[in-house]
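Record passed on underneath.
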Amino acid sequence: MIWVNGVPQANVDPSDRGIAYGDGLFATMRTGAEGILFFETHQARLTIGAARLGFQWQMSEALQQQLQALAIEYPLHCIKLIVSRGVGGRGYTPPEIVKPTEIVSVHAIPRHYAQWQQMGISLKTSSVRLGLQPLLAGIKHLNRLEQVLIKSHILPQGFDDWLVADIEDNIIESSMANIFFIKGNQVLTPSLAQCGVAGVMREHVMLALLEQHLNIECLPVGAERLIEFDSAFITNSILGIVDVLAIDSLTFTRTPITAQLRQTLLLTL
């Protein structure tokens, strides 16, 4: 189920800059009984990301209506929205006139995500390191080759996802989710000033933690600090919040904070 600029099963122009250069952004949005979860935050992040890439884009009323209609038709699904700069000629220089391409698709939520929420997961540190690029840090741009390289490695038995650090050995995220660490009543999530994706769920979890009067900081987290933490969990818009029970040979205890957050943010699968 794919729509290109509102047209079902349409094709993407081969000269689209999203294909040629990864010149664009995307969002993966979870649907619920009443529509898309955190829809306004997804819209705002895409608009800001487009501005950071140097082109103007704002979700039209027609696209909003299409996405919400799909959400009602397909509850508990994933809607993916890709926004590229649109068609451009050969060469890196962006075209003066920009007509963004919008691609919408609907997908089932992976079945094992519900089990992850219930049971927790284990992470293995990836040998692939993220490069530093503050101009792109935080936004969910279409250049995902680092993640492709990470996912091309086979996870050892007993592990569910990769933990990813940058080239300076700072913990950044999992291969597909943001990560939080807990020590006592202190919550810490890695700084994404140099690389990584600042997820919509990460933002809402941070706000919910503040409303629960917990101390939360966003700071660099060196890999050597992993032994300091009692608990950890990962977040993204589709899987919600999942406890991390182990990273490599280190073990962590489950925290009641994650169950509270899932209930507060209506994230149980």
